[in-house]
Amino acid sequence: MEKALMIRKENTKRGADANTFYKLFWIYIICGTLGFVIETIWCWIDFRHFSSRTSDLFFPISWVWGLGGVILYLATMKNRWNHGLYIFLKCACLSAGFEFLCGYLGEYVLEVTFWDYSAMPLHIGRFVNLPFCFMWGVFGIIWVRKICPVIDQKCEKPEKTVTQWILKIFLMFILLTQLITGIALFRMHTRQLGKEADSRIDYVLDHYFSDQMLQSFFPKMKGIVPGK
């Protein structure tokens, strides 16, 4: 009897872990895709021309928005009944810190910038803008009070095996394309530093993912390597 209870408890835990994984996966996809759409429309309105804001060479998604959505969900999943001001400040600070971290890593790892707020009013450095922080704080209240309950209710592990396999294949596709994109960007960085191709992988990357090709996919990307 005790062994059966332990097995049931373990199965329940695995089921809960699987549901959490599927929730986080869908949050990443939905937030990342919406981020791509929102930023693309914003650039159209602001600059009067189409500028793709994807961060994946094979799928229209912004990993910054996707990962930001996952972090925001994990950080606020227990704040639903907290005061609105607390939620506002927490989401604004989290978003500002995450945006700064992504901008900083892009600059000091790949030596490129994907956004720069220094020409806008009320900026803090180049990667944080106070009006956007206010916007994220307001959105955070809506996220915690309205969106998260729907996510908790709707995003669960599918019961059908076929659906599970489709989602697994889609997950592998996203992981693979994000990995290829990251490797291609890192190879672009090493090319700009003057490193010649010294492996089969480097030759393939240089052939299919040239600097010009990557710049066309990421038009707002600006290199900070001297002379480039």
Notes on the protein architecture:
- By secondary structure, the protein is mainly α.
- It has a domain at 2-160.
- Helices cover 70% and strands 4% of the residues.
- A hairpin with a 3-residue loop joins strand 2 (123-124) and strand 3.
- Helix 1 crosses helix 2 (63-76).
- The protein is globular and about 55 Å long.
- It starts with a helix and ends in a 5-residue tail after the last strand.
Furnish the topology, listing elements before pairings.
Blueprint: H1 2-47, H2 63-76, H3 84-110, E1 112-113, E2 123-124, E3 128-129, H4 130-154, H5 161-192, H6 200-208, H7 211-217, E4 222-223
Antiparallel strand pairs: 1-4, 2-3
Helix pairs in contact: 1-2, 2-3, 3-4
Helix-strand category: mainly alpha
Order of helices and strands: HHHEEEHHHHE
Biggest sheet statistics: 2 strands, antiparallel
Our Rg estimate from Cα atoms comes to: 21 Å
Helix content: over 70%
Strand elements, count: 4
Strand order, biggest sheet? Answer: 1-4
Report the end-to-end length measured between terminal Cα atoms.
70 Å
- As residue ranges, the low-confidence spans are none
Mean pLDDT: 83
Q: Count the helices. How many?
A: 7
| Beta-strand fraction estimate | under 5%
Q: Estimate the global geometry from the Cα principal axes.
A: globular
Short overview:
The chain contains 7 helices and 4 strands. It is mainly alpha-helical and 228 residues long.
